């Protein structure tokens, strides 16, 4: 079969979340690359540590010997956090090997059905036979987990598009390239914001969007709970109106949440919506 399914993770301060994410993709990946800054620097020049017990867990988990540790210097003084992110993603993809499907996942992202995502990717294998001819990017949809409550998790009620795979890793922002997007009906739980206040403040200082956060976001995040979330609106951390409403999962068990998502019509992407989005992208790039 043409090309491999190569999965790469950027591993940093939220490495413990990899214990949830890695099992969701492991069986259907050919190789899994973990990119870790050799000096344990964040993109903002901060520091993090990874406990030895994590690497022991990783060795025990990796029964098929698929995991490759890739350590390098990913923080460069003088670059912005986003420039450091783009640089690391390019370096990681080059390590994974052009001519394969290059899938990048963050530690706080959990595929509901990675087997299906791989099956959808394989429909477009002709793009990796000559990756320099036409850059392409494959999207799934995030379900943003917003905040833990005593009994469950608040989440953004509408899935949001997110890029996960490409044939040509010329990234211009995060995982995005300048190329046609192909949308697929795949959901990824994204635990981007559902952390402790301390963890969230550290993330905001050190991730690629550290200069973009709106000033009111954290105040609202602190106030919102499972009893009052319907009283608020506009929750996005950059442009608040992009996330209009929250909803609520009455459980913290990720497996149970996946089951809820799989049977929910409102949390899956309709064929009509996919057709409309993919036709628009095809039309836009057909004349370039």
* Integer average pLDDT: 93
- How many distinct beta strands? 12
Choose one word for the global shape. Answer: globular
Strand content bin: 25-35%
Roughly how many Å apart are the termini?
Answer: 30 Å
**Top-tier CATH class:** Alpha Beta
In helices, the fraction of residues equals 25-40%
Count of helical segments? 9
Q: What CATH architecture would you give?
A: Alpha-Beta Complex
- Ranges with pLDDT <50 over ≥5 residues? none
Order of helices and strands: EHEHEHEEHHEEEEEEHHEHH
Protein name: Glycosyl transferase family 2
Question: What does this protein look like?
Answer:
The protein has 288 residues and is of the alpha/beta class. The protein has nine helices and twelve strands. The chain has a single domain, classed as Alpha-Beta Complex (Spore Coat Polysaccharide Biosynthesis Protein SpsA, Chain A). 31% of the residues lie in helices and 25% in strands. The strands form two sheets. Strands 1, 2, 3, 4, 5, 6, 7, 8, 11 and 12 form a ten-stranded mixed beta sheet that branches. The protein has a two-stranded antiparallel ribbon with strand order 9-10. β6 and β7 form a beta hairpin. It is globular, with a radius of gyration of 19 Å. The mean pLDDT is 93. It comes from Flavobacterium calami. This is Glycosyl transferase family 2.
């Amino acid at each position: 079969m043409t090309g491999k399914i190569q999965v790469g993770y950027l591993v940093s301060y939220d490495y413990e979340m990899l214990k949830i994410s890695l099992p969701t993709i492991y069986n259907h990946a050919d190789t899994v690359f973990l990119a870790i800054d050799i000096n344990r620097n964040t993109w903002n020049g901060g520091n993090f540590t990874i406990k030895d017990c994590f690497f022991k867990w990783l060795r025990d988990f990796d029964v098929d010997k698929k995991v490759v540790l890739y350590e390098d210097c990913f923080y460069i003084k003088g670059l912005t956090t986003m420039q450091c992110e783009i640089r690391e993603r390019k370096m990681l993809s080059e390590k994974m090997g052009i001519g394969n499907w290059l899938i990048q996942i963050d530690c706080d992202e959990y595929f509901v059905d990675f087997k299906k995502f791989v099956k959808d990717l394989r429909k477009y294998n002709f793009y990796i036979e000559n990756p320099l001819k036409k850059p392409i990017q494959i999207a799934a949809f995030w379900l943003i987990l917003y905040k833990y409550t005593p009994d469950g998790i608040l989440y953004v009620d509408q899935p949001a598009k997110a890029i996960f795979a490409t044939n040509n890793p010329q990234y211009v922002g995060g995982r995005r390239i300048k190329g046609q997007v192909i949308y697929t009906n795949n959901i990824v739980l994204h635990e981007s914001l559902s952390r402790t206040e301390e963890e969230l403040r550290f993330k905001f200082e050190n991730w690629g969007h550290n200069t973009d956060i709106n000033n009111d976001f954290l105040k609202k995040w602190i106030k919102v709970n499972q009893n009052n979330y319907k009283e608020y609106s506009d929750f996005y951390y950059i442009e608040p109106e992009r996330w209009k409403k929250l909803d609520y999962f009455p459980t913290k068990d990720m497996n149970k949440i996946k089951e809820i998502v799989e049977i929910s019509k409102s949390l899956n992407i309709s064929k009509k919506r996919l057709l409309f989005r993919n036709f628009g992208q095809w039309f836009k790039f057909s004349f370039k």
